[in-house]
Specification:
The chain contains one helix and eleven strands. With about 180 residues, the chain is mainly beta. The strands form two sheets. Strands 1, 4, 5, 6, 7, 8, 9, 10 and 11 form a nine-stranded mixed beta sheet that branches.
């Protein structure tokens, strides 16, 4: 009788050990996906002063660059930065993974041959900046994997605009973290 009880205890102990070893750790990786589209309006700049032209003086963008010549570089803000880089396809789709970046403040940049051509900014139409325009932020913290949706890349202003309400997890909920840590 004692032998049977001891075997049962050992089996139970083994199951506890196995359940503790596999998959019980919380995932802290973040993968960002989305689609980049070039802005269809480019403001003409004064060639001498480099000042922006008056409203209404728009032209079509020059022969639009091949999006596959670009990549996205993301980095967390903290003592030990976490980085990730992802290629942009010719159709504008991308994926960037950052190991251990969950709930950490991060910023992303569009690059061409390692040179930053635009900073990614999150636009919040429900808030205004000091000038009364739409509020933007250059960093975000995510709860996990996130689809950033359609992102408008404007090479004239050097900004890639992500709409806040488009940042979703796989269930369609907001992927923005309410807490962020360095």
């Amino acid at each position: 009788m004692n032998k049977i009880i001891m075997v049962a205890v050992l089996l139970n102990a083994g199951m506890v050990t196995f359940s503790g070893c596999g998959g019980s750790e919380e995932r802290t990786d973040v993968t960002l996906t989305g689609t980049i589209a070039l802005s269809t309006e480019v403001y003409v700049r004064n060639p001498i002063t480099k000042a922006p032209a008056h409203r209404g003086q728009k032209r079509n963008p020059p022969a639009l660059m091949d999006l596959s010549a670009l990549d996205i570089y993301c980095v967390t803000n903290g003592a030990t930065p976490i980085t990730g880089t992802g290629a942009i396809s010719s159709t504008g789709t991308f994926s960037v993974s950052l190991v251990g970046a969950k709930d950490k403040s991060l910023g992303c940049f569009i690059r061409q041959s390692g040179t930053v051509v635009a900073s990614m900014e999150v636009s919040d139409s429900s808030d205004t900046d000091a000038d009364g325009g739409t509020a933007t932020m250059s960093e975000m913290a995510l709860t996990g994997n996130a689809d950033l949706g359609a992102i408008t890349l404007d090479l004239t202003t050097k900004r890639a605009i992500v709409t806040l309400s488009n940042i979703k997890d796989s269930a369609g909920n907001s992927a923005l973290s309410s807490t962020e840590s360095a």
